[in-house]
Amino acid sequence: LKTNARNSGVxxxxxxxxxxxxxxxxxxxxxxxxxxxxxxxxxxxxxHSSTEVTYKTYYHADKARVKRAVLEIVY
Length: 75
Prior knowledge:
The protein is mainly α and 75 residues long.
């Protein structure tokens, strides 16, 4: 993973140092959730037996997403 990142020329050495497989999994799950993928689908994609585990571990409120949701309600 780190070799491929280094060879791509896209990442800094600090980013490469911090790169690990779980970070990729975490980013994948967070992106799915922030793109409104149903939590059941995300849990299944990650192999979780419970959506509760998925939600607690991977859901992080994206401030821009929250703002859009509030504006949709207000306007």
